[in-house]
Design a protein that fits this description.
Strand 9 and strand 10 form a beta hairpin. The strands form five sheets. Strands 11, 12, 13, 14, 15, 16, 17 and 18 form an eight-stranded antiparallel beta sheet that branches. The two termini are 24 Å apart. It is globular and about 50 Å long. The longest helix is centred in the middle third of the chain and has 17 residues. 15% of the residues lie in helices and 25% in strands. Helix 3 crosses helix 4. The chain folds into three domains: 88 residues, no CATH class; 45 residues, no CATH class; 115 residues, no CATH class. The chain is α/β, with parallel strands linked by helices. It binds zinc ion (2 copies). One zinc ion binds next to loops. Keywords: Metal-binding, Zinc, Zinc-finger. This is MYND-type domain-containing protein. GO terms for molecular function: DNA-binding transcription factor activity, RNA polymerase II-specific; zinc ion binding.
Length: 284
């Protein structure tokens, strides 16, 4: 992750298997960035994502949007137009990236030690519920439960997060219009899921603000492509799912998003979010 004023030479590295992609470059003002001779491979996200590179080619209205935003904050003299374009040579090998989201069981690499004290032992016992987390003792397992309890459910092959619709809020107050980044394609189009049907449809779940501290009760936004559903909600299981399996969203540098299959239950009183099978990454 390169941003603000990073002067960096990334040369001849093997960069692999990051959930959010290989190298991500934000607005970097006047510092120079050279990326040369690296192998960037097997990432869930993109190989190199740079908001101000000739490769990305930001559309003019996005540029204007970012510039307007930057003039309002500090260092107004360092606007996007002064940001130096990173030098990315053609000697970088990019292979098997953008592989999409993974099931939590794949995304969470459990190292073969006790998950609580990180000691290795020949007598590690598995959590009987998920069969994945390992512990050296009952004491360690008990101590770790507060951290593990939400992940434990997500580590099941099949798990459905259930959200009571009455506990959610609309994203916008009535009458206000929601604006989306112009890089999102096909938003507001597509079929409208029938609230009385149990048929599955794809939703996008997005974590809020950048650089928030650890907070499983943090608000997330959730919507489907046609925006028939567009809600804010807090749910610890969803928080862990987005954190562990989500991908960095659009031009943001730390907010994550994930696409999931969802369905209604009990005449749309309950929204089910299924984690057994995740849909391919969407453009909207
Ligand atoms: Zn232990
Ligand atoms: Zn478990």
């Amino acid at each position: 992750m390169i941003k603000s004023r990073s002067s960096v030479y990334i040369v001849e590295n093997d960069i692999f298997e990051n959930k959010c992609g290989g190298i991500r470059i934000g607005t970097n003002y006047s510092a120079s960035v050279i990326i040369d001779g690296n192998t960037i491979r097997d990432h869930t996200g993109p190989d190199i994502f740079a908001i101000n590179s000739s490769e990305m080619g930001l559309t003019d209205n996005v540029k204007t949007e970012i510039e307007t935003m930057l003039t309002k904050i500090q260092f107004a003299e360092e606007r996007l137009e002064y940001s130096r374009t990173p030098i990315i040579t053609n000697r970088n090998i990019r292979r098997n990236n953008n592989t999409g989201v993974q099931h939590p069981r794949k995304a969470v690499q459990i190292i073969q030690t006790c998950c609580s004290c990180y000691r290795s032992s020949f007598q590690l016992k598995k959590c009987s519920n998920c069969g994945t987390a390992t512990y050296c003792s009952k004491k360690c397992q008990k101590k770790h439960w507060k951290k593990h309890k939400h992940m434990c459910k997500l580590l099941h092959k099949e798990y459905t997060i259930q959200v009571q619709m009455k506990d959610t809020k609309p994203v916008m107050e009535p009458g206000n219009v929601r604006r989306f980044d112009s890089s999102l394609k096909g938003i507001k189009d597509g079929p409208k899921p029938n609230p009385l049907s149990t048929k599955k449809f794809i939703v996008k779940v997005q974590s809020g603000q950048e650089y928030g501290c650890f907070n499983p009760n943090k608000m997330h936004t959730l919507y489907n492509r046609s925006l028939t559903l567009d809600i804010k909600l807090s749910n610890p299981e969803l928080y862990y799912l987005v954190n562990e399996c989500g991908i960095l969203a659009g031009t943001a540098l730390s907010t994550k998003k994930i696409f999931c299959w969802a369905s209604y239950k009990c005449s749309s009183a309950i929204l089910c979010i299924h984690t057994d099978n995740l849909p391919p990454f969407q453009s909207w």
